[in-house]
Amino acid sequence: MAALNIKKGSSSHSAYDLRDFHSQAERSHTLALIVDNEAGVLARVIGLFSGRGYNIDSLTVAETDHKGHRSRITIVTRGTEAVIEQIKAQLGRIVPVHEVHDLTVESAAVERELALFKVVGGGDKRVEALRLADIFRANVVDSTLESFVFEITGTSEKIDAFAELMRPLGLADVARTGVAALSRGA
User: Fold this and answer.
1) Low-confidence residues of the chain: pLDDT under 70
2) Distance (Å, rounded) from C-alpha 147 to C-alpha 129?
3) Torsion, CA 84, CA 90, CA 94, CA 96, rounded to 10
4) What's 37's DSSP letter?
5) Which DSSP symbol is given to 2?
6) Portions of the chain given CATH number 3.30.70.1150
7) Burial of residue 20, with CB atoms counted within 10 A of its CB: 0-12 exposed, 13-18 middle, 19 or more buried
């Protein structure tokens, strides 16, 4: 792989360098890991990311096989293709990791996130918050005379859009689960 090599003060570089530069754009990837459900596994996985300066945008963990004592870790991270390949290779070398899948490139995947939003306000803002919640198919899971707690599921983009619309209406608090994802099909 060629590195982009531009000398200070130089305004020209080869077409090869341009192709390489554009191919190195960072992209979000959803990684699914099957691991042993034992103490320290999550710390080792997270340590790999923090030790190498990789960021985690979203992280979910739950036991999925009680008899086999296996858990699924879903991680959303960003990086160039080379960085993502390096992350996958390093994750695969951690002993209690049994499978590493990049759902972004392996196949079509279904991704969902759950979020709770507390919106405080009255009058027209309260009515508008209810109207928008209906449009976004958010459920009211708690209500007082001064506030609502909405529950919403969907893509991270849908959750972000709902948050932006609720902010001027009195958004007071948000709790998000992080992305849960599965590949589609067989």
Assistant:
1) 1-24
2) 10
3) 20
4) -
5) P
6) 109-183
7) middle
Sequence letter at residue 73: I
CATH number of 109-183: 3.30.70.1150
User: What is the pTM (predicted TM-score) of this model?
Assistant: 0.77
8 Å CB contact between 102 and 31: yes
In a 3-state reduction of DSSP, which class is residue 133? helix
24-106 placed in CATH 3.30.70.260: yes
Reference 74, options 65, 64, 61; nearest CA is 61
pLDDT value of position 67: 94
Tell me the C-alpha distance between 24 and 51, whole Å: 22
Tokens 């919640």, residue?
133
pLDDT tens-digit series, residues 15-53: 333 434 444 688 999 999 999 999 999 999 999 999 999
Compute the CA torsion angle 54, 4, 21, 11 (nearest 10 deg).
Answer: 130
pLDDT tens digits, one per residue of 98-111: 999 999 999 889 99
